[in-house]
Fold this sequence. Notes:
It contains ten helices and eleven strands. By secondary structure, the chain is α/β, with parallel strands linked by helices. The chain folds into two domains: 3-227, Spore Coat Polysaccharide Biosynthesis Protein SpsA, Chain A; 235-316. The strands form two sheets. Strands 1, 2, 3, 4, 5, 6, 7, 8 and 11 form a nine-stranded mixed sheet that branches. A two-stranded antiparallel ribbon has the order 9-10. A hairpin with a 5-residue loop joins β9 (187-188) and β10 (194-195). α7 packs across α10 and α9 (259-281) runs antiparallel to α10 (289-316). The chain is globular. The protein starts with a strand and ends with a helix.
Amino acid sequence: MDFTVIIPTFNGAERFPEVLNCLKAQMNTESIQWEVIVVDNNSQDQTPQVVEAFQADWPGAFPLKYVLEPQQGVAFARQAGIGAAQGEWVGFIDDDNWPDPDWVIEAWKFGQDYPQAGAYGGQIHANYQVSPPPNFEKIEGFLAIRERGDQPNRYQPEVLSLPPGAALVVRRRAWLEAVPSQPHLRGKLPNGKMVQGDDWEPLMYLHRAGWEIWYNPAMETYHQIPSQRLERDYLLSLIHGSCLSFYPLKMMAAEPNAKPLILARTVLGNLYKAAQYFVQNRQQLKHNTVAACELQIYLSRVASPFYFFHQSLTKVR
């Protein structure tokens, strides 16, 4: 098997059908063997029935499979998908991310052309239900938007420059060899807490194992972004949860003798930036969502080591 597409979903019965329709319409895949797997991450809606309905009228050239992962968290859903996949390459597509008709073949071709790549992402464009606030491009990366030009280029994991998991392709063998079966950073949890980094933790393991992480502009998807994801409280919570993973991810790429300096820079450097930003923009913070979010980045990075140490102590107890 050449390629597997995995769609992790939680209560996505109304979202992922359009992703399946996009996959049914894929072009120029006659020369490869591929499959689609929907990983149901303990949904409480009609996800199993929706998949079954699609299977009844699914093209025979590439199978559609269903996998249940009861342990909550997209990191566990991705692991379950990797375990069930047969493809040499595995493409993860979020249940609200619509791929272009040539996404599968362009994803597969890139893997053949870049043998040192352990993972790669493509262009992810935004389909906003409502217009975002002014200057939103400063923080749109937190919504998994990526537009890095029309030429392939390498990400830089050592400075946490990495693609999101929303439309990520990985070499299955590299993942199985380098990525632990139990993730440390587990993403959104059912209790409402949002502590992320689940997209990037596997990529840091691949980087440490010597694999390159690339950007493939020929893979294009469209992230569907409803109005509630542009609300101030949602964005602040999203950024806080994302930036809490800053310190542990930085430590994964660090040499042992550099770790004390990284800790100091994480706390003191971001504390200074937060204070400076507050002084310069304090008149805007109450009404300007983007300004409030930019300040939140610095504050949550300051909190990141303390959250990490607290979690480590909790596990020891």
